[in-house]
Amino acid sequence: TAASIPKTQKVILINETGGYDVLKYQDYSVPSINANELLVKNKYSGINFIEVYFRKGLYPSEKPYILGREASGTVFAKGDNVKDFEIGDKVAYLSGSAFAQYTSVSAEGKVVKLPRDSSDETLKLYAAGLLQSLTALTFVNEAHNVKKGEYILVYAAAGGVGLILDQLVSARGAHVIAVASTDAKIELAKKYGAEYGIVSTKEDIVTKVRDITKGQGVDAAFDSVGKDTFKTTVDALRSKGTFVSYGNSSGLVDSFALTSLPRNIKILRAGVFGYLATQEEWQHYSKEVVHLIDSKKVKINIGKVFPLSEYAEATKELESRKTTGKLVLEVPQ
Ligand code: NDP
Predict the structure, then answer these.
(1) Which one is the CATH code of 2-130+301-330: 3.30.1330.30, 3.30.499.10, 3.90.1170.50, 3.90.180.10?
(2) DSSP helix/strand/coil, 312
(3) Cα(50) to centroid(ligand 1), Å
(4) What rounded mean pLDDT belongs to the chain?
(5) What is the mean pLDDT of residues 202-215?
(6) Candidates 142, 227, 321: which one to mutate for ligand 1, based on the most atoms within 8 Å of Cβ?
(7) Which end of the chain is more exposed for a tag (fewer CB within 10 A), N or C?
(8) CA of 254 to the centre of ligand 1 (A)
(9) Does the beta carbon of 135 sit less than 6 angstroms from any atom of ligand 1?
(10) Is the distance from CB of 327 to CB of 160 less than 8 angstroms?
């Protein structure tokens, strides 16, 4: 009942853009819900690199801004119009303000219902896997439809999205050329399907790509690094290859002259939400992701779990390239 909804909760928010010191773990009001919304009591939230862009101001936001884009937990309250969910249902979802104990989520939005008897481990797995699996899955279908035999360059190949791309690309019979900053990260990427590895801190990416592909270049590159790798990626692509630019871990790509693009390459800026814009797209891809995760056809590598209060520490590690796989926050109950 409404009476049992607490008035305040703990959240991670920012009042201004900046460094780690602008991250606040503090009390904040529990959101009210409208007739079409759920109030979810979060158990785990997934950390994504996008929070860094909001904190630094690369992407704009209204302040105060509660960070977080995905979580899992239990339906705690629901609006009068909501028919498809019951109080007590276990769910995982994509929605803003997820670094919080309670989040309001549209019942017609990007929510997956999980079995009611789902364990905490299952909730953790979904908080870890939902957004990044959807990213990798939509990209290998739509940003560049990966085909058997192709050579595909994957940056940050031991990261959250990277390890899932490694698996989906190799499952299609394509050759993954993994790029990562350390030997240990390349080893991990190879366990998840990468066939070749390039250690970016000591090897030249373009030279090695040319060696592997017998001078041709790769059919497509999934580039999440942005600024630092733009030119390298262009040079690594084969004639008519596809440049999928989908992140800015090193900063925003500088502007460039369209006429500077060689060899009829295609370039696009891919965003996962653009592939999940309609209910049909959401249903299609979310069902596929649930299947991939449940059947372990996609393995979600959880690098580390932090308490919600220690988000600043977690993102420090993420931003200093110390992490592999996915970072998850455990929310105090
Ligand atoms: P990761 O786990 O991949 O962590 C980031 C990794 O990027 C690091 O571990 C590091 O790997 C690599 N990296 C390269 N250069 C830098 C740098 N200058 N600073 C920090 N890291 C660097 O994070 P996520 O899986 O959460 O996200 C990966 C990327 O995908 C991000 O850019 C994110 O914004 C993007 N993304 C985009 C989406 C979209 O819809 N467009 C959706 C989801 C994610 P290494 O040490 O091996 O180089």
Answers:
(1) 3.90.180.10
(2) helix
(3) 9
(4) 97
(5) 98
(6) 321
(7) N
(8) 18
(9) yes
(10) yes
